[in-house]
Amino acid sequence: MASSYPQIVLFGDSLFQGAAGLSDGFSFQAALQAQVLRRFDVVNRGFSGYNTSNALSILPQILAPPTPGGPALKYLKPGAKTLTRSNKFILFGANDACVELPTNFQRVPLDKYKANLARLINHPTITAHKPKIFLITPPPLDQIRVTVLDRANGHPAAARQTKLSATYSEAVRQVAAKHPGVTLIDLHKALMDRAIQKTPGFDPKGPALGDPESGVRGYLEHLLPDGLHLSSESYRILYDLVRPHIGAEWAGTKDEDRVAYVLPDWREAPWLSEDRYLRGKSL
């Protein structure tokens, strides 16, 4: 039977779909894949425009139940019992947080959004694999920039609002706190902290960057070029948040460069002793 690699699944909206791209010499997905090469396959299941209700409807189509020959959602560390499970990152909310407009129908009310996240975490198709689950907060929103682009695209007003989007990020924090074993990745806070740090003179006690009430985009201009999607710098920040949670099982171990490989290092391969034997016979 062919060896199947355990998977890291990036399940989300356009923010994960865009994680496969290369911008300014950096790709989030490629960086993550390089970190776990020969141990995990990083699988991108980002769907632009999708919300959590859409995610629930397609989940059975993108993740199969565990099978003997299918992609494993756990792996065996050599010489030990199963110590690590695969990882599943969930990043939805930017579309759920849309406002109600006649030109947009992506909105999912906040209470339903929280319920949908809980259903995703506890979905039988997911729990059957016993993965490690990471919930990522949606990033901040630059409503000042979004308003200009949305009106240019035919919306009567901004389809998203800074204050409303922030409540969806807070909802992710609450859902993660209620589910033991789920790890929170607070992208919203990390990006806003960077933006405030890089915006001289801005008072964080007042209205947020990107909020029309503050009238200041500040460094969000660099982190969210269109007000919504991540720049390469933002993807680097996301990777810095994720990186410490991946690979702890082999970090710092002897021969960590090849511990937990699905297939053995060439120096440890079972055919090596046979090759040496054959070479010895030929002498």
From TrEMBL:
UniProt domain SGNH hydrolase-type esterase: residue ranges: 10-237
Swiss-Prot/TrEMBL keywords: Hydrolase
Keyword Hydrolase: yes
MF terms in GO: hydrolase activity
Designated name of the protein: SGNH hydrolase-type esterase domain-containing protein
Organism, as annotated: Chaetomium fimeti
InterPro entries per the UniProt record, alphabetical: Iah1-like (IPR045136), SGNH_hydro (IPR013830), SGNH_hydro_sf (IPR036514)
Pfam families: Lipase_GDSL_2 (PF13472)
Keyword Transport among UniProt keywords: no
